[in-house]
Amino acid sequence: MYAIVTTGGKQYKVAKGDIIDVEKLNAQPGDSVELDVLLLNDGKQTIVDAATLEGKKVTAQVLDQFKGEKQLVFKFHKRKRYHRTKGHRQNLTKLQISELPLEGAAAKSASTEE
């Protein structure tokens, strides 16, 4: 079973117990956060209907707030003696996925449609 969640303008494929690094969230280590679900798969059926997934959330535990690796930005104009080097480190949040939305939800909705 897995889900596609969105946070910080990006999408992540997650399963229970996964650890992911996302854009910084306003939460302290030990807090619990909820992520919006775009797709839910139980191994037999895939749900992508927005109406069905409207109230579903993936619960994750905040493990750490940290900075990512340094990204170098190098500007250069040949034959003009121009070069500039800058660096950037993105603030990130480490999350552990603790709960997927109603793990039998896909199976229940499949049985009601038949």
Automatic annotation (TrEMBL):
Alphabetical UniProt keywords: Ribonucleoprotein, Ribosomal protein, RNA-binding, rRNA-binding
A GO CC annotation given for this chain: ribonucleoprotein complex
InterPro entries named in the record: bL21-like (IPR028909), bL21-like_sf (IPR036164), Ribosomal_bL21 (IPR001787)
An annotated GO BP: translation
SUPFAM superfamilies: L21p-like (SSF141091)
TM ranges: none
Matches recorded under Pfam families: Ribosomal_L21p
Role: This protein binds to 23S rRNA in the presence of protein L20.
Official protein name in the record: Large ribosomal subunit protein bL21
Species the sequence originates in: Olsenella porci
